[in-house]
Amino acid sequence: MKGCLNCFRKKEEEVERKIRTNDLEYNKQFGYASNYISTSKYNVFTFLPINLFEQLQRVANAYFVILLILQVIPAISSLTPVTTAVPLVIVLSITALKDLVDDVRRHQSDNLVNNRKSQVLRNGVLTEENWMNVQVGDIIRMESDAFVAADLLLLSTSEPHGLCYIETAELDGETNLKCRQALVETAELGDDIHSLGQFNGHITCEPPNNKLDKFEGTLEWNGEKFSLCNDQILLRGCVLRNTQWCYGVVVFAGQDTKLMMNSGQSRFKRTHIDQLMNVIVLWIFGFLVCMALICAIACGVWESYVGQYFRAYLPWEVFTNNPAEIAALVFLSYIIILNTVVPISLYVSVEIIRMGHSLFINWDSKMYYAAKHTPAKARTTTLNEELGQIEYVFSDKTGTLTQNIMAFNKCSINGKLYGDVYDKDGNPMDITEFTKKVDFSGNVYSDKSFTFYDQTLLDDINKGDENVTNFFRLLALCHTVMPEEKNGLLEYQAQSPDEGALVSAAKNFGTVFLARTPNTITIKDQDKEVTYELLHILDFNNVRKRMSVIVRTTDGKLLLLCKGADSIIYEHLSQNCSDLQAVTTEHLNKFACDGLRTLCLASKELDPNYYEEWKSRHHEASTSLEDRDEKLDVVYEEIEQDMMLLGATAIEDKLQDGVPDTIANLADANMKIWVLTGDKQETAINIGYSCNMLTDEMEDVFIVGAHSKEEVRVELANAFKKIKDMVGCREVMIKDPRATSMVDMGDKEFALVINGHSLVYALEKEMEIEFLNVASLSKAVICCRVTPLQKALVVELVKKHKQAVTLAIGDGANDVSMIKAAHIGVGISGQEGMQAVLASDFSFAQFRYLERLLLVHGRWSYYRMCKFLKYFFYKNFAFTLCHFWYSFFVGFSAQTVYDQWFITFYNIMYTSLPVLAMALFDQDVNEDNCVKYPKLYVPGQYNLFFNKKIFLISLLHGVLTSLALFFIPYGAVCEAMRSDGKDFESHQVFGLTIGTALVITVSLQIGLDTAYWTGINHFFIWGSIAWYFGASLIVYSDGLYKLAQFPFVGVARNVLSQPTLWFTVLLTVLVCLLPVVAIRFLMRDLRPTLSDRIRLAQQLSKTSKRTTSQLLRRKSSRLSHRPSSRRSGYAFAHQEGFGRLITSGTIKMRQKKIGQRLSEHNLKERASAEDLQYDV
């Protein structure tokens, strides 16, 4: 507990952290957090009060608690508090139990983590301590496969020169091993406990923060000062791999660790139906107040003119002698009685339905990716119906639309293109499965899976072509790949699939990367092993978009080798490369048109004197504590000038299976697809055509690629003018971008492609509306060369100005901000780790599953939730308003028409299960037709299944039903006689008659609303009616009366034996339901919707199948005696800073059905907007 209090103790904001190793007393004065962590919310003493407080913060729960308090006051309540207390307690208990289970799991997880064992060096002796007892400044020993207990500064390891390997899956989802390196000076401490115990280094570093890839600090020891960076830091949550042991000093502990500071909750998302329900509940509350006010005013009038003369029989309360005071009390009484228009069970039912819909997604075998054993997963249970209302889909390209499995496909070397295949006459040939592959069997390091078809490239290598040799030598030297031997094979651990593909290509063509240390790189160049001295790695970042290495050859030459995006490399080339640059550009354009990912290679021989001068400036920048990255970028830029172009590579990233069909179907469902990618324009456009986003039938594809603000404005204005002239848009759209969603584009389609440098200006406040107007009127939008921040800004822009639901889908860490910004975030578990999945609301393994998620699960969830809400409000208005009509016959005395136990059980026991069955299993059309006819999805985008108008219709339906339920039994029971001649008229008989008619009516109404019957629906509907009669006979029996004092004793047995009751109930039910049946029959006959037509075709198709089956069976019976027969930019996905790590110390080499055709009803795929017959 002490650790917990210390963990949450409020302290002043840190500016910098000072730590003295092996000096706990010195470090305690700063009040640093201990290593105790707590993710739980409650303990034994705080659970009940805090949980109740949290639940009462929900307006609905607080409202029902207030009602319960009012019901306890006898003067204003004619209902027992049990009618509200029982459902309220059930709801609060279920929620509390769920919270308790979740928190117990958190406690168990916390205890498991806090009580992990760690070897801590205390007073010169290694002692075993629980993690929670570890303090800042302690030195910890870890062994292979152990979790890192806190954020540590690495001191020494079992590997040469302080190297260790870690797995960061818990931090970023990536399972590839990463390297960390201790300082050379501390690495000499080794495993010497005495030396480590005497270590008294003074660490000054940045305060706790959530930046996983950055650390700045200094270490002062033995009179020297050393610069510290992220390369020397092991973060809590990492796992030590392939390293026998290591030592580290605790820098950040517990809640201050970067892992804990990144574990904040995601943004809370609410569905549009939730927001609409809040508005409707406020309307209902206003309606409730109006009814109670009418009854209160009428009560005051009645008491003034009538009631005061009957005080001998109906005495007033002893504490009042004023009709106005009585009216005020009656107002509160009717608030209590009529509160069931918004029953608390509504919220419980909604949560159960959402949970069921989430489980259906998790259990869907058609969204299970067998190749990786990855099922679809609903990571939240609150957004299912929102999946049925998506209008904008924002998608990443690489790894989301494409496979992100890279293959070296083509290249351009010194102006010569390799990779195409030609016939004997010199004509280009298409590559098929029968095309002859290049034989790499002469290379013992070649991969069997590597394929290449242009034999001329291998021939030029064998001839000793210097340009080709230099090209592949650069690929083998300029990278941050780590070699590893597995099962006798040389494999590479790469930070990105692109880099791995390039180094593997060099290996297959004979330039094999064998091993590296922090100071050397060893390659095998055409059977000759050569070691290069690695002097510097000029690392990649998102601004530079390139990486370089500086190496010294065996003959003493200094070489700068660089690879990166063509647009960046071209800016740093020598003037002598202009001709080669022009030819290479043609090849790059061709590669981009083929949908390949490209990058350029360049090199430069350095002057030794210049290098020495530059080296000193580099050292000064690398040891700076302020703006270190910016200073390094300036130094890198200085040396990366006047390079000579070697050529370009082209890597293929194929589309995932089913992507074109999925995008086409989503577009037919009126969804606008926006692709936000970091790739270059040509490649993005080509992928757009490949996946059917862009088509030749489009009127125009607008390309915005200007580099200035005014030019971007002009290009957007010209695009909008052309669209306006062709489709007749009004100028008002420029001021109201929401109007663009309702423009009838006819058969005219447009697309917009915008570059990242143009998007910078388009997203500015004064131009964002112009950009959004053009984008909204385009069927497809492609934003290329965009940053992760720009992806999120585009999503936020649409959310800000459009009344539409957005979905973002991606697979990498650069998609996380976009996924969190959208209403729905979908993560794909691909090649770039699990970051996107961890931040998402839904996840699966392939983009094609998005079609089923939206068109089937999303549409069904929205359809079912809307039907549930319409019915739920209807049945509760029909139930509650009978009290209101009854008030006119009882002097507005707040007398209830039903027995109080019937009021309690109505929503909990009598009518809850049938509506849940409908909301969980109902479907208007089957799953095949949901996909085959994507226009079925459109109503959800315009909220047509449930909106304020639909609610008012449900309210009116409930009002009319309540009138029939009340006045027909009233006319039948009033002055009625039993069959034995005794009086049949009484309040109890009247209330039971209405209740019986009500339960049967609403149960049969749910039967009319159910489009898809299952055994569960039958059981719940007919079972609920049977349960009502059984429960009534039991509750109102003599024996139970003696136990619980039920007031309607014997009335069920008395009334249910009378034919009058059954005739009255039958008449009431017919009056309530026959108009509904008639109206629905006329609507489906005169104005059928698309779903009505498809459902009819499904039914006829089933009938046709049964008839055919019967004919076949009859035929087979007669013949039974017969014998039976039967162009993109390079994806720099690897982490910034990895290059510094490699050069910081010595590394030893590691080897280490579509549905049936409905031709008889002429249901064609066109399914135009007119077919829907909706008032959009």
From TrEMBL:
Q: Which GO terms describe its molecular function?
A: ATP binding; ATP hydrolysis activity; flippase activity; magnesium ion binding; phospholipid transporter activity
- UniProt subcellular location: Endomembrane system; Membrane
EC number assigned by the record:
7.6.2.1
- Membrane topology annotation: Multi-pass membrane protein
The alphabetized list of GO BP terms reads: Golgi organization; phospholipid translocation
P-type ATPase N-terminal domain sequence ranges: 19-84
Active site: residue positions: 396
Q: Which InterPro entries match?
A: ATPase_P-typ_cyto_dom_N, ATPase_P-typ_P_site, ATPase_P-typ_TM_dom_sf, ATPase_P-typ_transduc_dom_A_sf, HAD-like_sf, HAD_sf, P-type_ATPase_IV, P-type_ATPase_N
Decide whether keyword Oxidoreductase is in the record: no
Instruction: Give me the ranges of the annotated region Disordered.
Output: 1105-1129
Keywords tagged on the record: ATP-binding, Magnesium, Membrane, Metal-binding, Nucleotide-binding, Translocase, Transmembrane, Transmembrane helix, Transport
- Name the coenzymes or cofactors required: Mg(2+)
Give the top-level enzyme category.
translocase
Describe the family membership recorded for this protein in Swiss-Prot or TrEMBL.
Belongs to the cation transport ATPase (P-type) (TC 3.A.3) family. Type IV subfamily.
Protein's name according to its UniProt entry = Phospholipid-transporting ATPase
Q: Which organism is it from?
A: Branchiostoma belcheri (Amphioxus)
Primary gene name = LOC109466136
